[in-house]
Fold these 2 entries.
Entry 1:
Amino acid sequence: MSTAQRRSRPGGRPGGTTAHRELARLAGAVTALEWSPRGEQLAAGGPDGVVMVGASGGGRRAEPVRTHEVGRVRAVTWSGGGTWLAAVGDQEVTMIDSGGEVLAAMGTRAWGPVVAWAPDRPALAVGSGQDLAVVDPSGRLVLEHPWLGAGVNDLVWVGAGCLAVAMRGGLMLVAVGDRAVPGSGGPGGHTEAPGWIDIAGLVTTLAAAPGGGRVAAGNIDGSVRVVCTITNEAVEMTDYDSTVDLLAWQADGRRLAVASADEATVWELDGIEVVSGEPVLLGNEPCQPTTVTFHPTDSLVAVGDTAGSVALWSIPSEGDAVEVATLAAGAEVTATAWHPGGTTLAVGTAAGRVLAWAAG
Amino acid sequence: MIDPTRGTLSRDNRVPVTLVAGWLGAGKSALARRLASDGAAWVGSWGWEGPGARDDTASGELAIEEEVAERRAGCACCAVRWDLVRSLPSLALRSPAPSRILVEVGALSDVALAGGTMLRERRLRHRVRLDGAIALVDGPAVACRLAAGQDPWPHPRAWDHLAFADSILVGRACRLSTAAVDEVLEVVAQVNPLAEVRIDSGDGAPELPTGGFGAAGVAKVEAIEVPRPPSRAREGGVAMVDVVDVAGELEWDDLVGWLNRVHRETGGELLRARGVVAVRGDDRRRLVSGVRTMLDQWAGRPWAGASRGSRLVLAGRDLPVEVLQDALAAVSRT
């Protein structure tokens, strides 16, 4: 495994503040935002459930808001085709179809479940405490992995049928098959013997690279690794002063945005090789990033922070990042999501506002 | 490794956190329930006490399994409570925002680890601030052990919880005679003579210690009337909580080096340090407060014409205070 160390680099010039529009207002902090894959709807998680905002014109025109009161929501995620939405609560996962009907609600044994839709089938992986299961949109258990022995901190699909699970001490790779295997714990599938990649410390968060085969893993020890899930080779980027807990890939998989509590950076990668040996630092002033989100098609990255601003950074192929625009959101930024068309950035705040920013 | 960080927030709207510690059956959960009704959120601990504590979720509180994560392999003082790192930020963002978050520290759990997590983990520091620590004592249980000629504290963790606390609440004292209450108070004071000790009447929610880890609380250290003789928790002359006074000024690096030695080389265990320091070249008092080797610092009142000196209150286990005082005096310049 190769290792690269980050170092400070001057940031870009400050940009101007641009106009925005309020799409919805929740009763408390917006905890999650995600556009449906074709961009017709924006799902916003909050204290009372999920608020769905119909959108057109690239997300710039909002339609009447529908609210699904499913309790406090910590995360929302659409299935690949946009047919189903999973709303994740403190100890519950609720399945909602695109028409707004609640299909199922599943309780979890431990607090703070994490979920991920399979890219190739209507199946949702659910990790909770030391449990790992895959369910279908109706909530039916497809398979249940045997006791894991450590808590699941995050999970992502890294290609068809392969699930990466973030745990203490490493990354578990679970191959999820289609065949029903007696005694596998579920009626419709099976898991094969898991692979394991040792990573010292505790893996806090994962991001699967577009195209599959690689996964970025943030760590509590202030490092991030990009692991090839085929060869198990990895590159480690170190020296963040605090836990790395925010990761986002550029759409072409060549750049990875990495943020800890005090800074946001972008690494350029070729496979599992760091191209420049050091990252681009987004800003030379201390900031406390709360979100990082790459534009769906361009080399733009949006960074929200505790001070209530969203900075839009352009990452050139060489040289420093340039801050091209800034949005004053009025309160701590708690969630951001690019419209799939790339013309609108949805911004959620701790004050409950959901804003549409024509920032593309 | 000392990692000093400045307390800089002028408009601090972070949610205050109070640690609620105590031995088995001391009434931690009952206290948290009483306080939670006043708008406080509560993080219950399964810790080592087993899954019986799961029932806590029935009353709407968050019960989460304790999980310790080392940030550096083998470095206990770099460890954090991962369960708190995960859960406290989302608790702080709830609507309406909790007036306070109570973190229950299990009987066998490391109270300094829970407190240090809130200083060390910066993502947590953005949303919450460590405000105080209260330890609960089951009065009848301690009295029974004393009457039987037993050690009143069944495990070193029980000392730790008392030594770490800003205030100590003796519960169920109504079941004891006045003489027995006095005996319990005496053994409590032997461990932590500087904590505010109260008898829990059981009526309403007791007052919580506030500001003990912040500048205002630390500034009070200067006015502490030092108990003499200092506390002796065990035969062998080692202190749980004691005061180190030195005249003159200190180089900041000398103070940091000294604290590192307290933690690493004395054979004891430093849980908490706070105090007022005369730093060379600084016209103002330097207020410091920390858990293990993590320190916050603030600028205090100007020295003006006052004679300069430093006072540190140390809480820990098996700390050779006289040796430490001599070591600090050796690097102090008058």
Entry 2:
Amino acid sequence: MQRPPAEVRWADELARLRSSDRAPRPPGWALSLDAARRFVVGDPKAKVERKFVGDTSLIDRALVTLATNRGLLLIGEPGTAKSLLSELLAAAVSGDSTLTIQGGAATTEDQIRYGWNYALLIADGPSERSIVPAPVLRGMAEGKVVRFEEITRCPLEVQDSLLSLLSDRVMAIPELPGAGGMVFAVEGFNIIATANTRDRGINEMSAALKRRFNFETVFPIPDLETELALVESEATQLLQRSGVQVAPRRDVLEVLVTTFRELRTGVTDTGDPIDQMSSVMSTAEAVSVAHAVGLRGWFLRGEAGSPGDIVECLAGTAAKDDADDLARLRRYIEQQVPRKKGRHWKAMHDARHALPG
Amino acid sequence: MPASFVGVRHHSPACARLVRRVIAELQPAHVLVEGPADMNERMDEVLLGHELPVAVFTSYRDQFRSHASWTPLCEHSPEWVALLDGRRAGAAVRFIDLPAWHPAFEDRANRYADTERRYSRAVDRLCRAFAVDNVDTLWDHLFEIDPGDELAERLATYFDLVRGEAGSEEAEEGEANADAEREAYMAEWVRAAVADAGHGHVVVVTGGFHRPALVAALTGGGGGQHPPTPSGWPDVPVFPAGAVGGSYLVPFSFRRLDAFVGYQSGMPSPHYYQRLWENGTDEAGAAIVESVVERLRRRRQQVSTADLVAARTMALGLARLRGHAAPGRVDVLDGLVSALVTDSLDRPLPWTGRGRLAPGTEPVVVEMVAALSGDVVGRLHPDTPHPPLVDDIEVELERYRIPVSGRFEADLTELTGLGASRVLHRLRVLAIPGVLRTSGPDVGGDPVLSEAWELEDSELRLPSVIEAGSYGATLAEAAAAALGDRFAHVAGDAGGLAALLFDAALCGLDELSDQAVTEIALLVGSISDLGGLGALLSTALGLWRHDRLLGAAGSSAMAGVIDAATIRALWLIEAIRGGPAPADGPRLQAIVAVRDAVIHADSVLSVDRSSVLGVFVRSAAVDRPPDLRGAAIGLVWALDEDSAGDVAAIERSVRSAARPAVLGDFLAGLFALAREQVLSTGGIIGLLDDVIANFAENDFLIALPALRLAFSWFPPREREVIANTLLERRGLVGSGRSLLRLTADPELLARARAVEARVGDLLSLEALVVGGLGEED
């Protein structure tokens, strides 16, 4: 399997937590709140790995929300590990993270509630045999958490099909006669949606639906040290796989990560406000730039990447979907970089002419 | 009988309760409290029955350093409870720490800051182990929510752990030495008290971080480093001769208690902990919800019952998950934020981190933090001796013969007049009632050499002077501190900042602290209105270059402002993009200010000339508005070292801007920045004459208003020079001055030309004129 789901990848951790779990479990849950939290934030004593870097209180609020009758909406910049978090939460709460709807412009109600096997439908008429349950119907019937990725990319009407499901916790299937026509949610059912603040669609979520969700904003990694460590380890792995024989230099990476952080937050480390980039300056993007920097350094000059390479590679990242970003980047390198101390910053400033245009 | 040590966290209600219990149980003979020992002889004054919070304010100034520090006390401070209950139990209560002016406190403005914050590694590990975000939440979790019976033991374990792990490699050496010095001094007091008490109990209330050191010092045996004094008690360090300052009581407020940040901070949210102290965890939680909802509704934010139910459910759920008997501070806040915020947040929740609120924090969250902070203001008992500021003001008024009421005039050109003016301005800055200036110098106004004041005595005067006493011991110090406070409130408002700087100049700038200057530089960095920034820059530049009157010329504070404002202006200018648009006057003024700063204040700028030129070379690109392009070309020309410049290139860019809709705006920029260069080279005027003469009638009318505006950058005398140049070029004889004088309203003339042109068009359209006007022959 190229990428096993969370409940398979960490099956032994989940089993360990379950066997030692004495705290009360909410009805329908595979783990207690406390064990679920430890699954996500890690517990060295029980040999549980830390899987999510961020505020613990966010996990607390997310788990408690899932135990109430409101859905959980994880919202944030791209590349803040929202999807990973929703997968971890679903695996911890239900032991199953596969009930997933991928939102998009083409998502229809069939993919959320249920569809029909048309051959059987024509042969037998509507029956429980001919119905094809979609994730929400299955989640309700089995009492599991359903993940709805990128919910705001769906058309508004499709989003609103969740309204009655979330408030009344019942799905009507008018085609089916008798008791089968009403599917009541079993305890343990809830929805984790994720949304991207860069998608303009977020504004289009109806107020009625917003009320049925608790919003949790997931922020980029708050401190430089943690992010730098993450970028370093990921980039080193990638570079090894690409046949580069020198490890990236930590001081060069620090320049890179600091640049990303400042352009992402719109504040420099001295507190001066600068223009935020409209391109995504996520940690994942920093890793890929670090990778490219390492490749340039090694294959062009046979050494580790230099701050000059950062400038060259940033241009590609920055100008990806907005030409103004190139101007913002130039402004940053022309005006903020020379005010920083250290020879790598100076090298970066000297390489400013490498920016196109 | 050995001493009982109670290690506390300052302002912690749980610790206050513990202190109360210990004193009630032991009925000690001595209660020793971490606090300024120089206040011991004035303990009666401290316990007069003030409305809390109050603070012991200490100021110190000698030729090497000046320092201000507070020792804040509120009702839920363990130190306060120790003083109060100790006195009530008949014990002798004493402060045992070094006075706040002692060099050991050099870098501290708040005596009761959390010391363990400096030793963060252990605290970070504890936070991870308990799965909480920060030390405040950890503290709530461990101690406040459910203190239990074994609180003393848990506190001791916690502080031993933090202190034990705090190897000297973590703290800076200076800080560790200061801690050691204070602890040695406190230990001397404890030894003396134990010797004095005989069989009585001695209760020692200090910061928990100091407790392990004190316990070790006393059980380690041996005498102190100093020989015992005749009285048996340690000497209180004597206030150095030649220095000014002292300690005295001032009213304090919850807002200021909450406002210490970083290393200087203690427990946050004083209002919440006050409620916790009075009513317990449950009621304190309910009180926050009530006060948040009340605040939000006052701001017309909708808070429905369903939301409150959801908030309560969340809070209870979180409390259970986190193992709390009742929802604690963060449980309630988390519940509220889950229920009330229905959008993404721009900034992380303030209670997950530390420090001041970041700008851009969700308004609902801001209200929550404000509700927890509370707006209680303390008041001193009427019998409290006045702070020295009261006397200092009397002396200053006397010195300059300023009457208590009536009219007063100050001649700013005289030394005494200037001194009097400064005294009055400082009073004004401190908001002392009855001090009103009726005329005098103003921001950006013309130089005025005298000031008139309207003074009035009122019964509000003394109370407000006493309140202002918390800012400093002398009038100058207090005014500087008050100005520094105001800087925090003008964020991003260039006009407000300019006014504030001017106030600082009026009060005598030397008093402005370095910290305030750094803060101003930061504030300038957040201004986004280029016009306002330009006004600020030219005000600062003017004061820095010319102000002999108020004495701001050459001051380093102004230099800092000039540098910060220039850098910010460059940053803003670089971002401007746009197509044809009317020339933006304030923007051009700002660029002029940048030019002047580079020419006249080069020595204080931290950007070099080539970087400045780089910004403007790029700003001449085609995607910028025409006035900016003109101004950029003009600035580069004006700053060019070899004054000739590349006139040919400049003429080329003027020619490329010679479109009717653009030309005037472009020239406005060029003339604003390089007026002298345009006049001295002359080529540009000739070029313009050619270009404009070739405009069709209609085009000329389109270009006309903007052209007029552009030429208004020249003063009349220079316009006359231009007119003469034009006459000469065309080989005409006449007076340039008469050309400038219009016989009718220019708008009327323009309209007349438009009507004429239209008539001509109509005539040729209807074939009434062969070939149109001007082609008859």
